[in-house]
Design goal:
alpha+beta, tRNA processing, transmembrane helix, 8-stranded antiparallel sheet, Alpha-D-Glucose-1,6-Bisphosphate, Chain A, domain 4, globular, methyltransferase, membrane, 428 residues, 9 helices
């Protein structure tokens, strides 16, 4: 390259040098992008059946079990319909060979930690979502927005400056969790209720959802002279709706959705190398896991297809995202659920190194309010030659952060919020 530059400088001057420089830079970036896309490929399309999902569906292992009664988060005994019709019909859980991803190196604690992380960060699966607010956690690990604000306030007492401080956050009406279903071979370990927060509240509404954590009973199988122990974990998501018409656009048209992870642990004397990345990288592979996706569809009708093409793409994307994110999820050093929780006290934090100044939900709420109020006018009246859609939203995000920072440090409240408080009788 150096010889080429010297020769071109003599013959053609600096223009050709610049052209060569851009050419080599473009080639390098293209090669890097191709390498990254190759590494990010989660599933081999040739391993799929190529048939529509509706033609490959098979019953899930627990689909024939009946519904039972259980206690909700408030201790009341209610009938567990688990998102199905109130008529008491049994659930019809189904899956497909195309929704199964095997030969995975991840231990069950990696999938557990990943599930905990995604509970607070559904934006990793859908660009229509901002985040999820935790409303209830039976283990008390994931914090509600009110608990998060109190933790930030107690950790930085010097920020509570004087001035016209905003009124304390009002706790919303309690949301009951959907009762858990008893599944043979599994034991309920945890219940989490969350609220999905959309990016554009004018288009989509928030949605409450219950997630149940199940842990299967360990079984031991013999393969030759080896004794393989099989561990299973099940994560069931159920939206708080009574009909498909109540589901917003960003949520699949399903009664319930579940991830089942089965892991065959090798004996300690028989490790193998892992080449699939993940929390264990190129370390010794402790066993082989299989991740499968199961769902409970709404009943079909003349005007409704319960398994459309869009649903198939969504389920494939969810499965691929789980496998991709599991590669960078750290494992726990312990095996029991309670020990995992102690080691991952803030597992839903997207970026704990940065999201430690102001709670994320406060900044996002202020940003959404500013965007809905001012973005259209700012983009319309933009006088610079640069693209307004980029700079306006970036400036609004910075403004939202500064507003919440100054509110926390000095008790400064915007005039618009003062007027709103006065109108509602909450302030002066």
């Amino acid at each position: 390259y150096g010889t080429c530059c010297k020769f071109s400088r003599v013959l053609f001057g600096h223009d050709l040098i610049l052209a060569f420089t851009f050419f080599f830079l473009f080639a390098h970036l293209t090669a890097t992008k191709m390498a990254r896309s190759k590494r990010s490929a989660v599933r081999d399309p040739s391993q799929l059946s190529g048939k529509p999902l509706s033609q490959t569906l098979v019953p899930s292992p627990w689909s024939t079990t009946t519904l039972t009664t259980a206690n909700n988060s408030n201790g009341a005994e209610v009938e567990a319909h688990y998102g199905c019709d109130s008529g008491g019909d049994d659930e019809k859980w189904v899956t497909s060979p195309d929704l199964i991803c095997g030969d995975l190196p991840f231990t069950p604690d990696i999938i557990y930690n990943l599930t905990t992380f995604l509970l607070g960060n559904p934006n990793m699966n859908s660009s229509h979502l901002f985040r999820a607010d935790i409303l209830f956690d039976s283990l008390g690990v994931l914090k509600t927005p009110q608990e998060t604000e109190r933790l930030f306030s107690s950790s930085s007492p010097g920020r509570s400056g004087g001035g016209d401080a905003a009124p304390p956050p009002q706790s919303s009406d309690p949301v009951e969790s959907i009762p858990a279903k008893e599944i043979p071979g599994f034991e309920l370990k945890r219940t989490v209720v969350r609220r999905l927060i959309p990016r554009n509240p004018r288009l989509d509404r928030a949605l409450d959802q219950t997630c149940h954590f199940y842990e299967g009973k360990k079984t031991t199988t013999t393969s030759g002279d080896l004794a393989l122990s099989k561990e299973r974990s099940l994560y069931v998501y159920t939206p708080h709706v009574s009909s498909k018409e109540e589901l917003p656009f960003y949520h699949p048209l399903l009664r319930s959705l579940a991830f089942l992870y089965e892991f065959e642990r090798r004996p300690c004397s028989q490790p193998s190398l892992s080449h699939n990345g993940g929390g264990q990288g190129q370390a010794e592979r402790l066993g082989t896991g299989t991740l499968s996706l199961h769902f409970c569809p709404f009943p079909a009708s003349e005007s409704f297809d319960p398994v459309p093409t869009r649903l198939e793409r969504t389920l494939q994307a969810l499965l691929a995202t789980h496998v991709r994110l599991a590669r960078s999820t750290r494992p726990s050093s312990s095996t029991t659920i309670s020990q995992k929780v102690c080691e991952n006290s803030d597992g839903s934090n997207y970026n704990p190194a940065k999201d430690n100044v102001i709670p994320r939900h406060l900044i996002q709420n202020t940003y959404s309010r500013l965007k809905l109020t001012y973005a259209a006018d700012l983009c319309r009246d933009w006088v610079e030659e640069t693209e307004p859609s980029k700079h306006v939203f970036e400036d609004l995000a910075i403004t939202a952060f500064l507003m919440e920072l100054w509110r926390s440090m000095y008790g400064v409240v915007p005039a618009a919020e003062k007027k709103s408080s006065t109108a509602t009788g909450r302030g002066a």
